[in-house]
Each structure stands twice: as structure tokens, then as C-alpha cells.
Write a structure and sequence with these properties.
24 helices, alpha/beta, Arc Repressor Mutant, subunit A, 3-stranded antiparallel sheet, Rossmann fold
């Protein structure tokens, strides 16, 4: 066993913990299908959101961890439930009035309100695949519409008719009395209107593989359960899909967790061992509400990538998947800087520590070197005091601070400079609020200005930090009040960088001028 595999077998990193659970399924014999199958599910009722990306990313991390500890081949499927009926019109799409007449039709039978694809379902599927392809995920895409209509689901659908009473018994236990009277695991698609019907069954004929029901107008119909004439209700569909495909692992959000026993039992009745599960906490928007595809709250993948790298988003998704987290624009700077901190730490870590480092899982073990000689948070503050409208303005300061750096040799820093300017102008600048210093703060600022005027050393961040500290040591208790004053008076923000590092980057003379401007009331 290699050193990495041996370390992975005891690693406490959550992807390895989950991978070991999957491996245990086949400790006696390898899978008959020849591979271990990881699945992610997607409901294309609205535009794909960042939570969908997180689910695929995290599943991929577990898949790659499995490949470290096992030689069994793997596959990953991204399954789109696009045969579901459109229950409501999403609030964040054009031509909403047109969509109302297509309610309850399968999403792949609803016209595309954007006018670019065959249907609304096809449009949203294309959006999902574009997002996933941006990140280089390896997956097979399956459309529920194709899965049902091409016969790939037929065997399990016929088995569902045969074991209808057992499946209904599982479902009826979970339903209120009123719902039980009309519930069926089968949802027929009306032969004339194409709408998904929620109607009780008059007969389920296991021998013929058919169902008989009355539509909403009281007309009786008999349809085969095969060939896309019928779909399963969403809870039975979940477990039946596992059985049809032979799924070994699927993760889903906490909102599904109470249904896990139902999914598992459906899968078992239909002849497959229930897969391993991983339940993650949900993402929240800036107000603490769950992000939603249909409402479009929170932050989208494209929005994150307007202000930071793909790797920073992957880092955010890796962190504490079982903890609910706010997913809004203000989390981006911290994610960027922590990601690069982990990159720098990785270089000096042993094999065990590396496997616990998030960047190992983000880069599948092929971890690059960080070239961010200036933290993202520092670039934001620099953009603020410099009034930067483009990244070239920042590079003027960066190259004085780090002469060896350039856009060619430090591409991640170059990209971050551009992101910082955009983030500053969109989020920081509108909320900047300067204040005048108190008498004590003015005294300390004058002291700092005078010491910097007399400074004849190099622009060393640590030495300059010592100067800043000396000016506040005898005046402020606790010292954080001094640094808070620096940020609020000089930067117009409630928090900021290590100030010695900021002076080294911005320049000693420039910082003297900044202090003079603040003392003269030109900032507040």
C-alpha cells in the first residue's frame, strides 16, 4: 500500500471518511456492474444555483478520494428530473405570462421562455452543464425524459407495478389521511394534454404492466407504465432511480433527510441495496433564508466568478459541509485569502496533513503554488485608498512592493487585482463611511505620521507594524480600538488588514499624506 493510500485510510478529511463508507459496501466482492456509481440529482424547475454546483463538487471530491483508496473503477451521473410537471412559474425568468398556460406539463414540454432551446427543461439542463463544464467535472448526464421514454426505466417500472402494494404501504405511512385517499406512486401523463396528472388509480395490472385511471373530466384511460407514459411520484422516483441505475452514493440537502428511510425502502423493495448517503446543510442568503432556484436569492455561480476564482468557490464549498453557511458576496474575500493560505501551508506539510488540507481535494492532489504575494483583502484596501478603476493602478503599487512580480509570472495575483477592483467598486465603495478621529485618536495619528515622516528604513511590513503598534500601545486598551480607529478614519471601513503590511504596499509617503488628509477633514 502506498504512503498516500495508507494515510488516506485513516484521514479525518470528510471526503475520505465518506469514501471509506462506500468502499465498505464492496469489502467482500467487487460490484457486478464493474464500477462504483456516484449520483447527483437536479430538479430543473428554475435556473441552476450555486447549491447544485456544491453538490456536484462535493460528490466529485468523495469520488476522487475513493479512487485514492480503491482500484475499483468509478462513474458519476448527473440526473435531471426534467419530466416533473412545472408546478409554478419561476419568478426570475422572462415571458412569465406565457408559461402559465403550461403549468403541470413536464419541464421538457414547456416552451423555453428565453427562446434559445427546445424547452424550458432543455434550457435549464444546458445551463447546468455549462456551469459544470466550466469547472471540468467528469460526469455522464441523464435526462429523466430520455430515461423514461427510451425504455431505460421500463424494467423497474414493471417491477413497481408488480410490487405496487408494498410500495404504496411505504408511502401511505408518511401521508396525512386526506392525501392517502387519492395518492398513487404512479403519475400518468395525459395522452391529450400532456400534463402530469395527480389522480388515484382504479387498477394497477401487474400482468399487463398497465394502470387505469379517470382524468380530471371523468374519462377513463388505460396506459402502459413503460415508455414514458407514466412517471413516478418524486419520493418513489428517488429510490427507484437508485435501483434502476445501481447507485452506490448520493448526497442531498438537509431538507431531504426526513425522507431517507422512504427512499431507502423503495430502493430495497425494487431490488437494490440502498446507497450510502451524505446529508449537507443548506446555504443561506444575506437575510438567513434558504437559497432557492425559483426565487433566485443568494449568489449565483456566475456572480461569484465575477469577483473571484473558481478555486476560491471550491474552497468555500469544501469547508464544513454539515454546517449551514451564509452564501453571499461578503464571504468572497475571506474565501480567497484562506484558499491561498492553505496553498502556502501545503508545501511544508507531510502526507497525512496534506490529505487533510482542503486544497488537496480542490486540485485532486495536483496542488499548484500560490503566487499571491499580496492578500486579496489588502488589494481591496489598496483599491479603496487609491480610488482604483482598473487593475493597472494596483500593479503600480504591487511592483514597488514586490519588484519580481508581474502579470506573466503571477497570473493568480493579476486576476485577483482585477477582481479586487470590481469587488471594491460594486460592494465596498458604495458603503464606505469615514469618520473624524477623537482627540486621543488624533494624537496617535499625529504620532504615527511623524514617525513615518522620519522613517528611513526599508518598506518592511513587520518593522512598520511595530511602528503602528508603538503609537497605540500607551494610548489604547484594548489595542483593537486603535486598529479599529485606523480602519474607520483612514479606510472608511470597520475592519481591515495588518496596517504595517498596508503601509509597505501603499507606500510610506502615501500613508503620511493619507493621514494628513484625514486630520484635515478631507476624508470624512
Amino acid at each position: 500500500m502506498s504512503e498516500i493510500r495508507e494515510a488516506a485510510m485513516s484521514s479525518k478529511a470528510w471526503p475520505f471518511e465518506e469514501a471509506r463508507r462506500v468502499l465498505k459496501r464492496y469489502e467482500k466482492a467487487p460490484p457486478e456492474k464493474g464500477y462504483v456509481l456516484f449520483e447527483t440529482g437536479y430538479g430543473p424547475s428554475g435556473l441552476p444555483h450555486i447549491g447544485t454546483f456544491g453538490e456536484v463538487l462535493r460528490t466529485t471530491m468523495i469520488r476522487r478520494a475513493f479512487e485514492v483508496i480503491s482500484d475499483i473503477p468509478t462513474k458519476m451521473i448527473c440526473f435531471s428530473d426534467d419530466l416533473d410537471g412545472m408546478r409554478k412559474v419561476p419568478g426570475n425568468v422572462p415571458n412569465r405570462d406565457m408559461l402559465h398556460e403550461h403549468l403541470q406539463k413536464p419541464l421538457t414540454s414547456v416552451p423555453d421562455p428565453f427562446g434559445t432551446h427546445e424547452s424550458f427543461g432543455h434550457h435549464n439542463n444546458a445551463m447546468l452543464r455549462r456551469f459544470l463544464d466550466t469547472f471540468g467535472f467528469e460526469y455522464d448526464f441523464i435526462s429523466a425524459t430520455d430515461f423514461y421514454r427510451t425504455g431505460q426505466f421500463d424494467e423497474v417500472l414493471l417491477r413497481s407495478a408488480e410490487r405496487y402494494d408494498d410500495l404504496m404501504a411505504v408511502m401511505l405511512k408518511s401521508l396525512r389521511e386526506e392525501r392517502r385517499q387519492t395518492y398513487s406512486i404512479f403519475l400518468p401523463l395525459h395522452p391529450e394534454t400532456g400534463r402530469v396528472l395527480y389522480v388515484p388509480m382504479k387498477e394497477v395490472n401487474a400482468k399487463d404492466g398497465t394502470i387505469t385511471f379517470d382524468d380530471e373530466e371523468g374519462r377513463e384511460w388505460t396506459l402502459p407504465v413503460t415508455g414514458g407514459n407514466v412517471k413516478l411520484q418524486w419520493k418513489p422516483d428517488f429510490g427507484a432511480r437508485w435501483a434502476a441505475l445501481g447507485v452506490d452514493f448520493e448526497m442531498y440537502g438537509k431538507d431531504h433527510s426526513t425522507n431517507t428511510p422512504i427512499y431507502d425502502r423503495i430502493c430495497q423493495i425494487l431490488g437494490w441495496k440502498a446507497p450510502e448517503h451524505f446529508t449537507y446543510e443548506l446555504f443561506l442568503d444575506d437575510t438567513g433564508q434558504k437559497i432557492s432556484k425559483s426565487s433566485g436569492n443568494g449568489i449565483s455561480i456566475d456572480e461569484w466568478l465575477s469577483y473571484a476564482s473558481t478555486e476560491s468557490l471550491s474552497y468555500f464549498m469544501y469547508q464544513k459541509p454539515k454546517t449551514a453557511k451564509r452564501l453571499y458576496f461578503d464571504v468572497i474575500p475571506k474565501a480567497v485569502d484562506e484558499y491561498h493560505q492553505q496553498l502556502r501551508a501545503y508545501r511544508d506539510q507531510d502526507a497525512k496533513a496534506r490529505l487533510n488540507n482542503p486544497v488537496y481535494h480542490i486540485h485532486n492532489g495536483d496542488v499548484p503554488e500560490s503566487r499571491m504575494v499580496v492578500p486579496f483583502s489588502m488589494l481591496l484596501n489598496l483599491a479603496s485608498v487609491a480610488g482604483a478603476e482598473d487593475k493597472e493602478t494596483l500593479w503600480g503599487f504591487i511592483q514597488r512592493y514586490a519588484p519580481e512580480a508581474s502579470a506573466d509570472t503571477h497570473p493568480d495575483l493579476d486576476a485577483a487585482a482585477g477582481f479586487a477592483v470590481r469587488y471594491y467598486n460594486d460592494f465596498v465603495k458604495p458603503g464606505k463611511t469615514y469618520r473624524a478621529p477623537t482627540d486621543l485618536e488624533r494624537e496617535a495619528l499625529e504620532d504615527l505620521r511623524d514617525r513615518l515622516k522620519a522613517w528611513d528604513g526599508t518598506a518592511d511590513a513587520e518593522e512598520l507594524q511595530g511602528v503602528v503598534f508603538a503609537c497605540g500601545r500607551e494610548r489604547f486598551d484594548p489595542m483593537r480600538d486603535w486598529f479599529k480607529a485606523l480602519y474607520e478614519v483612514l479606510l472608511g471601513a470597520s475592519q481591515g488588514p495588518r496596517f504595517g503590511g498596508f503601509i509597505a504596499l501603499y507606500g510610506v509617503e502615501e500613508t503620511v499624506q493619507l493621514i494628513d488628509d484625514a486630520l484635515a477633514g478631507k476624508l470624512a
